[in-house]
């Protein structure tokens, strides 16, 4: 049995496996510029964040109908459940769909078809987090928030993703203020490829409650001290960091040093179809390669629930934490 965990950094569009991509392409009459799933997998050799994003946006062409989004999310939830995920806070990128003529309602209602039955079908509770693309304009982000207004009962929070360098958090001050006024929770990618200053700005200017990635905080001891003191959760994605070359190899990943420093770290999959593994695969990889002991793995699992947006259901959070505390490790944990 896998270790119970929450997944807090997961782009639903990044769960599109090659097989489903071709199935949806056929269903929607879309031609992909790859001969077959093997040829597509061959393209998964990334230099950096941008080279991944180019393919990530290209493949979204196959997502057209509510049912496509429902099938995508249901496939993720089934895989996640099999790897011990009990709660998932799921990012989606509406601007990438709106730009292709797919309406906000198609995306949200489609995802909701799967999320609404996730507890019954997979035993996974869920939240939705709407991300703004930071390489698009602030005006576009504001228009996206407006377009989401009819669906806010389905959306827990907002996030910020896509190409980081050159697009500092401050660009999105106004839309984050508007989101906060609407009662939405706030997170942002910061310190993946961008400098530690972006992490500070995300906290001070955007008021984020969690930092996605946040890896580069390790370059600034004063920032580390602050993140520890303020108990700011970081949603780390070790296999993503290897594939996008934020670290040279998994053995070089700073996760052990980050835990030793007292940071509230969590382990997540980011875009599992592209980066070689789901949440449990990431746990298994850090256990094996970074030699994390059972206490550390249990701490990571506890952190995932402590950092999740379950304030509206503390009873559930307590139940999940009790599952982690009662967990007995075997040899093949993930
Ligand atoms: N970083 C930034 N943007 C993203 C990512 C990521 O890892 N995945 C999907 N959009
Ligand atoms: Zn991400």
From TrEMBL:
The active site is at residue 192. Keywords: Hydrolase, Metal-binding, Nucleotide metabolism, Zinc. Binds 1 zinc ion per subunit. InterPro entries: A_deaminase_dom (IPR001365), ADE (IPR028892), Ado/ade_deaminase (IPR006330), Metal_Hydrolase (IPR032466). Zn(2+) binds at residues 9, 11, 189, 270. Gene3D superfamilies: Metal-dependent hydrolases. The record marks 213 as: Important for catalytic activity. It comes from the Bacteria. One of its GO terms (molecular function) is hydrolase activity. Residues 4-317 form the Adenosine deaminase domain. Substrate binds at residue 271. SUPFAM superfamilies: Metallo-dependent hydrolases (SSF51556). Pfam families: A_deaminase. Its EC number is 3.5.4.2. It catalyses: adenine + H2O + H(+) = hypoxanthine + NH4(+). HAMAP family: Adenine_deaminase. Catalyzes the hydrolytic deamination of adenine to hypoxanthine. Plays an important role in the purine salvage pathway and in nitrogen catabolism. Belongs to the metallo-dependent hydrolases superfamily. Adenosine and AMP deaminases family. Adenine deaminase type 2 subfamily. This is Adenine deaminase. The lineage of its organism: Bacteria, Bacillati, Actinomycetota, Actinomycetes, Kitasatosporales.
């Amino acid at each position: 049995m896998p270790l119970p965990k929450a997944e807090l950094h997961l782009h639903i569009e990044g769960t599109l496996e090659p097989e489903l991509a071709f199935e949806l392409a056929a269903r929607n009459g879309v031609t992909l510029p790859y001969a077959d799933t093997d040829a597509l997998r061959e393209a998964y050799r990334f230099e950096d964040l941008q080279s991944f994003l180019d393919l990530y946006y290209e493949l979204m062409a196959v997502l057209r109908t509510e049912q496509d989004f429902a099938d995508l999310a249901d496939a993720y939830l089934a895989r996640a459940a099999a790897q011990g995920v009990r709660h998932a806070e799921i990012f989606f990128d509406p601007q990438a769909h709106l730009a292709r003529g797919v309406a906000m309602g198609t995306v949200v209602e489609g995802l909701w078809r799967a999320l609404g039955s996730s507890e019954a079908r997979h035993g996974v509770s869920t939240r939705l987090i709407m991300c703004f693309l930071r390489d698009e304009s602030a005006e576009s982000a504001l228009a996206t928030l407006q377009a989401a207004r009819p669906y806010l009962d389905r959306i827990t929070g907002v996030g910020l993703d896509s190409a980081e360098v050159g697009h500092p958090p401050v660009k999105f001050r106004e839309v984050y203020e508007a989101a906060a006024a609407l009662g939405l929770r706030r997170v942002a990618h910061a310190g993946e490829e961008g400098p530690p200053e972006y992490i500070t700005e995300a906290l001070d200017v955007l008021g984020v409650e969690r930092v996605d990635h946040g890896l580069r905080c390790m370059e600034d001891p004063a920032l580390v001290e602050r993140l520890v003191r303020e108990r700011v959760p970081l949603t780390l994605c070790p296999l993503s960091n290897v594939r996008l070359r934020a670290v040279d190899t998994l053995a070089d990943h700073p996760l052990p040093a980050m835990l030793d420093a007292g940071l509230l770290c969590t382990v997540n999959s980011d875009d599992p179809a592209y980066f070689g593994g789901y949440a449990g695969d990431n746990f298994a990889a850090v256990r094996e390669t970074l030699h994390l002991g059972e206490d550390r793995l249990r701490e990571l699992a506890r952190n995932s629930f402590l950092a999740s947006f379950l304030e509206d259901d503390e009873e559930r959070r307590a139940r999940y934490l009790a599952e982690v505390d009662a967990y007995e490790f075997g040899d093949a944990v993930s």
